[in-house]
Amino acid sequence: MDKSNVKETAMTQERNQKRDPAKRVQVVNVKIVKETSFLYANRYVRSPEDGYELFKEYLEEADREHFVVAALDTKNQPISINTVHVGCLNSSIVHPREVMKPAILSNAASIVVAHNHPSGDPDPSREDIKVTERLAKAGKVLGIELLDHVILGRTTFISLKEKGYI
């Protein structure tokens, strides 16, 4: 063994013996806190129209794109609604972890997601379709089924389930 290899081995052993200082780990309690509530007359979300009715009042006056998730129980009754992202005038960036987090915390069996198009035109963009596909895959892994993705326009809506994207 030459001198450079011996020196390198000694330095490696010395580094392995030194340890980083202890890392403090925070112990946390994660909770959902109710902000407000409203009455949902239909009680169940069993169709795209039901999803539209659930989200319509919630998103009607929004001037920017809002991406919202409704957590549903095993009978498709809404447990909670959570705005997971507020975008700009014509876009919203969402990630499956932000969408699934309130569903997990609500013990949801399934979810329906929605977002508005402030332009009034509910036609889905390529990004809307990609997000829907990613959410459906994430839901399968977590055991939380994505039932629909509803896009609200000014006076109408589009169901990505009805369009065959789910």
Automatic annotation (TrEMBL):
Any one Gene Ontology BP term: proteolysis
PROSITE patterns assigned to the protein according to its UniProt record, in alphabetical order: MPN, UPF0758
Alphabetized InterPro entries for the sequence: MPN, RadC_JAB, UPF0758, UPF0758_CS
Short name of one Pfam family: RadC
Domain MPN: 44-166
CDD domains referenced in this protein's UniProt entry, alphabetically: MPN_DUF2466 (cd08071)
Keyword Ubl conjugation included in the entry's annotation: no
Keywords assigned by UniProt, alphabetized: Hydrolase, Metal-binding, Metalloprotease, Protease, Zinc
GO molecular function, one term: metal ion binding
Origin: domain of life: Bacteria
Keyword Transmembrane helix: no
Region annotation (Disordered) ranges: 1-22
Similarity comment: family membership: Belongs to the UPF0758 family.
Record's protein name: DNA repair protein RadC
Source organism (scientific name): Salimicrobium flavidum
Source lineage: Bacteria, Bacillati, Bacillota, Bacilli, Bacillales
